[in-house]
Structures are given as structure tokens and as C-alpha cells.
Amino acid sequence: MAPSDQRHEQALKLFLDARPELRETLDHLNPLLAQAKGETQAQYREERLHEAFEEEAERQRLFAWELTLQLTAASPEEYQAQRLEVHREVAEMAGMDWIEYCDLYGITP
């Protein structure tokens, strides 16, 4: 049950709403930088927002999808349950033993 695109968009909105200084920066990006990358201003802005989101997740020692769940879960308990569910899915897809996976990623099952 990886976070949906809709849920991720909601998390990005919440993330940005909580950071007026980031919104201000994103609203005043140099349009020449977007042009130099061959992107529209909206695409360039979106890319910078995603970078800031990833950086925040990394700062908190989370995967970006974990930050998405953290920002959109109704409660800390719901976040933990969803987080473990996704980690379990990842372990299964990787063909790893759950306990071994938990040890590798410092997860308390």
C-alpha cells in the first residue's frame, strides 16, 4: 500500500503550507533558470518543491514516502501501521526475511 499520487500531492501541499519562507522562495524563482533547463516555470517550481520535500525527509532520516504518510495520516498510530505495512511490502518484493529487513533499516516490528 504505497502512498498514492493523490496522497503525495496532499502531503506536498501540507508541507508547503507549513513553510511560508519556502513558498516565497518558490514563488520568486528566476525564470531564466527554468528556461536554461528547458522547463516551464511551473515545472521548475515543482521540481524545487520535490527537492525540498526529499531534503526534509532525509533530514528526518525518512524515505520520502514515509514523510508523505506522516503528513497525511490521521494519527501517529495510523502512520506507524501504514509505515510498517509498506515496509513489509518492500521486504516481500525484495525477497528479504522480515526480521532481517527490520534489522537492516532499524525498524521495530
UniProtKB/TrEMBL annotation:
It comes from Pseudomonas atacamensis. InterPro entries: DUF6388 (IPR045662). This is DNA repair protein. It holds the Pfam family DUF6388.
